[in-house]
Task: inverse folding
């Protein structure tokens, strides 16, 4: 059986950036990989076709309870949809607080987990979901937070930012942790560590080209030229800024205090100043 290598993160933490880096390195083209090709390169655990195949129902007839109950079967279908181990994007936690499993270790080879400072993440999250920064801060602190994919209508259980990070980095699935900020500051070093974890031989020129093709400047240009199906209807663009440090400049003292109150311990653990 083929197994899944999860590309996991809280929404707007750099998941699509990592997909673009991997696609550009593995495909190794002279020109950047088109954004439309990313969905073929990496599947998602919210693709409705897998759920409708299992139930025999149209997606609008599948309840949340049903989608959770059939998820083990869906994940086996996703794992076996390619003849080799492959990448699958997810934003869901591995399990509900009650212990109900959402990410099955038996179909999982491992995970690349991208973490981002919540003080910066809230701005991208707010724009993506069409809400205020205050509401985004509330969502990141909500242990029952869920989202629905606008394209596939499948619910993802996020939970709080701290709970999400804890569940992925402290679970039974082997994880390669990548900080968004390290990808910004030293992309070749940070992405090179991912390739080594995946046992993919590193070629320096190829690595530099992949980093260049997947830069925010390149991805933004591709989106401007061709659009991007994953862009939220609430946002003017998918690739927003690709920077770090926005939170300390733009958040009010009250907002910063709330984020630190909700996530201070986890922020400190991953090197985010509190």
Result:
């Amino acid at each position: 059986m083929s197994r899944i290598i999860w590309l996991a993160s809280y929404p707007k933490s750099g998941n699509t950036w990592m997909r673009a880096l991997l696609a550009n390195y593995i495909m190794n083209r002279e020109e950047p990989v088109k954004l439309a090709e990313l969905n073929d390169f990496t599947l998602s655990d919210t693709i409705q076709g897998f759920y409708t195949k299992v139930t025999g129902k149209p997606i609008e007839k599948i309840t949340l309870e049903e989608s959770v109950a059939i998820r083990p079967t869906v994940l086996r279908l996703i794992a076996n949809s390619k003849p080799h181990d492959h990448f699958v994007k997810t934003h869901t936690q591995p399990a509900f607080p009650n212990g109900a499993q959402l990410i099955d270790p038996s179909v999982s080879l491992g995970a690349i987990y991208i973490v981002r400072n919540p003080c910066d993440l809230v701005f991208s999250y707010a724009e993506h979901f069409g809400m205020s920064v205050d509401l985004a801060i509330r969502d990141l602190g909500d242990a029952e937070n869920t989202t629905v994919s606008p394209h596939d209508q499948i619910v993802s259980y996020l939970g709080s930012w701290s709970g999400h990070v804890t569940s992925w980095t402290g679970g039974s699935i082997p994880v390669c942790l990548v900080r968004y900020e390290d990808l910004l500051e030293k992309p070749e070093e940070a992405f090179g560590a991912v390739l080594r974890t995946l046992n993919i031989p590193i070629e320096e020129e190829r690595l530099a080209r992949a980093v260049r093709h997947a830069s925010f400047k390149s991805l933004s240009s591709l989106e401007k030229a061709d659009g991007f199906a994953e862009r939220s209807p609430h946002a003017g663009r998918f690739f927003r800024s690709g920077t770090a440090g926005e939170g300390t400049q733009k958040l009010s003292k009250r907002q910063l205090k709330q984020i630190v109150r909700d996530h201070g311990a986890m922020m400190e653990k991953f090197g985010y100043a509190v």
